[in-house]
Amino acid sequence: MAAPFDLNDDTVVVVIGTGAGGGVLANELAQKGVSVVALEAGGRYLPEDYVNDEWESFGQLAWVDPRTTSGDWRVSKDFSGLPAWIVKAVGGTTTHWAGASLRFQPHEWKGATTYGNVQGANLLDWPIGAEEMEPWYAKAEDKLGVTRTNGRPGLPGNNNYLVFEKGARELGYKDVHTGRMAINAEDYDDRLPCQQTGFCFQGCKWGAKWSAAYTDIPRGEATGNLEVRERAHVARILHNNDGKVTGVEYFDKDGNLHMQKARIVCVAGNSFESPRMLLNSASSMFPDGLANSSGQVGRNYMRHMTGSVYAVFDKPVRMWRGTTMAGIIQDESRHDPSRGFVGGYEMETLALGVPFMAAFLDPGAWGREFTSALDQYENMAGMWLVGEDMPQETNRVTLNHDVKDQWGLPVANVHFSDHPNDIAMRNHAYKQGQAVYEAVGATRTFPTPPYPSTHNLGTNRMSENPRDGVVNRWGQTHDITNLFISDGSQFTTGAAENPTLTIVALAIRQADHIASEMSAGTL
Amino acid sequence: MNKADGPKGLSRRQLLLRASVAGASFVIGSGFIAARDAAWATEVSNLKPETFATLVQMARDIYPHDRIADEFYVIAVQGYDNSDHSDEIEAGIAVLDAAARGRGHAGYLDTGWERDRVDILRNMEESDFFQKIRGGLVTGLYNQKAVWPIFGYEGESYSKGGYVDRGFNDINWL
User: Which domain of life is it from (chain A) (predicted)?
Assistant: First the structure.
């Protein structure tokens, strides 16, 4: 049967969310002839709709439904209602992402084995590893057109990169380049090369950056096997007396409740919404929420160790011109406990415009210490620090029954406190980042605190043993065979790398698995 | 000034300018404030003119940029001049003035040195009033497209074809 599908069609796979996980999975399944209904809470925005304006774009794309926060992370103080800076739209956060596309390092698949017993950390090895993931990474890199992989050239360096590179070389760093980016350096896959516009975070108006919104989604729809329902906000996932999921209840844009029957349900709503949906689907058979016999649903929330370093020079840099994140130093991404922490971190170029710099340079700060920094905006360079953070059982997403969203559903509370390893790593990264800029003559540097999270991971983690996590090696929940998790929430550990490439690789692999199991009649 | 009942009993003489020591603004009369150099003028309909002038000075003291003219601070706080906010703003500014008087000044606007005004603000920075004004300024001031060029920021670039041919890598001092 071809799309659109009937609400009572119980042969379809329902995919919840259309970002790097759900959007890719939906298309990959559709390409294999599987009927898919994708439910997307947001609307559809394409390159012609994106705006080169930070706050206006935020208003257009960001997920701003209510959420609450707790824990000692500074985001909870500075942005208490906005724990994450992610997107509510067809294509999800692939509209907003910077495009950095890095494979995990082999040892990062084996966090517990590599790092040993880290007090207070709930470390676990992934049930899969580098060798198994290699071909899926290669497919993901080809899909995204990742620069500096499989023979594709790198992007040219912009002003912000040239400052960063010079400082890195002065410091003796060796693994320094313009990144492996899902942003075209030359025509690829019917998409233009980067025009150095500088608004990667606001949606690429050229389509030079890969986004599911204008690649996987329309291609899936073109097969006739994929129907994307926009502004469809999932309330709960239903199940039968056999403990199999049978369908999904969702609100349409007018607040009418519908129920789409399903053969299989794949949840890809990001690491806040995915566990929230499982928890909001609690029933008499599953009083703690779906797929939660381990008690791990919502736990082990990871957001990467992050921070930024901005620096002021005596001459102009104009960091906002050009690709936002095409620059990386990888020398610190190794595991080297002699630095005082386990795991590693990447240093990546980053620029913000004046409106976001004012909001994020030092949230809450005022007076001349702050404004004299902004006065030097034209002479600033910037980098982002991103490293592996420790999974902790107490860092978790729970339901806040005191706060309801626009549909009357309890919202997600996001509780996070840094692990001592995260703090030690951040302090090291600040010091190295400041040294990079001081090596090229920075007159002032700013160790800038984390922004609302963009890398949200781990709240339905993958485990070999059903006791330790929520899903198995295929992202299939241990408890319910026809319920899958297809986003970053299945991450067992976070690794140092930006997660999108791994989410995409896992989605391609999961689609392959689901389609073959369906053919075999085992799903 | 556009009140239906007109200026409330103010004579022409009462409209005499009252210059403040610290601020760049004059309170001209009921509902009307102008800059000393006449670079900007605005009407207020709910707040007392003195209150609004003090609010503008407070905004500048929170985010002082010597190259940004008062008119941008005026725009940043103009939204508080409505009936939803006026009681809260009047009360907050009254506290500010009382704090200034407690330090021997006639009022906040009459506190001549920025450091003395900043001391007053530091003592109230945890208050809801201060945080509301500060938080509002983050977008109210810095999201004005007209202030961006003062920082050198060029804003939207898509319509100009990005920077691929316009200096994305033109740094020349490294």
Answer: Eukaryota
